[in-house]
Amino acid sequence: MQADIGLIGLAVMGQNLVLNMADHGYRTQVFNRTVSKVDEFLQGPAKGKNISGSHDLKSFAAALKRPRRVMLMVKAGDPVDEFIEQLLPYLEKGDIIIDGGNSHFPDSQRRYEELKAKGILFIGTGISGGEEGARHGPSIMPGGNPDAWPHVKEIFQSIAARSDDGAPCCDWVGAGGAGHYVKMVHNGIEYGDMQLICEAYDLLKKGAHFTYAELHKTFQEWNHGALNSYLIEITADIFSKLDADGKPLLEKILDVAGQKGTGKWTGIDALDRGQPLTLIGEAVFARCLSSLKDQRIDASRHYPAPQAAPVKEHKEFAERIAQALYASKIISYAQGFMLMQSASDEYKWNLNLGSIALMWRGGCIIRSRFLNKIKEAYEKNPKLASLLVDPFFIGEISRAVASWRKVVAEGALAGVPLPCFSTALSFFDGYRSASLPANLLQAQRDYFGAHTYERTDKPRGQFFHTNWTGKGGSVSSSTYNA
Question: Does 190 participate in catalysis according to the annotation?
Fold first, then answer.
């Protein structure tokens, strides 16, 4: 009997997806570059399940129903292109190649176009949820050739996580590289969420000397309110974990953060688009700063922390931080969704931002109760310019802003770095300002480079130049935005 779908790449994510598919009644054919892993998998976790294996790509392709559906779960970059080239001799027009790794969206856009010219249907799909999600229900964000979607929709939506209302956390995102673009922004938002939580922890610990028992209890309480999320939930668990000697394990983990690049990609893309993705950018830079461990140790000897007054009212202090965390999180998502809208407009993807919020409500790392409100905002107004002008979020920010300002000030006075809390507040103050000092900036640019400026008393789109020194001429530079 031929298989419903084939999967190449039997690392932990690939294995768990195959087992998930088998649980939902799909027959799967597997292959791995190191063929011994195929036998190990079939004799181990896959034993007794509706899963078969191949030792070469020819027999692998022959074992699949037509149109063949081949899912690649291999390392992003060259390995994806290499496997595509190796597969092509055994595929026919109308067959489908699915890249489920963390590929950069321009690569997915290129593969979509190249394979389309050869009659092969390509899907680049983001998958979030880690090992546990892959096994029991991830968030799946497919994009690429829309002709391929009907052939994989049932499988993907069967194995995906379900939101509280039973909807699958998987739907078609858009053409070309749209699926991996949305996954990239998801990961960028994940960077922001994690850094915001770290800043809240740092301020509670250094500003009010919370014990780990207090931290555990505080985060558990937060998880039952507006901050309910997977990351808050696991953070509460982390605070309660003790090492073999009975001391908190977290105290023994080196404060040097790693990263795999998706947050950086998000920041670079935002710069290319001229989108103010300030919070995710700071989250990436915070990881970069953490890597300067030796320099930080040396600097700490020269610059002692300020002696701030001790915090006496722990409960009130924690509540202020919760409000600041919530408001900052709204800013992060607002920026991320503005970025996706900008890309959608450029690439003509027609992204359904409400549907994307739904896809993130279950299975993925940033899943949270909060996403329901984002879905509702875009359902009410699909052309919403920003979450910050949605009535619900206007109310939430307005209630939190006083605590948010106080927390940022308290962090500064205590010498506790709050890069994401601070940049979120600065963005909010900039976004809510009808007037910014960019008029002076434009005057400076015109003064030294004749870059011109627009006037408040003239229609938009008319540009002017002033001979500021009386020595320059009337010639101005061309006007453009980089």
Answer: yes
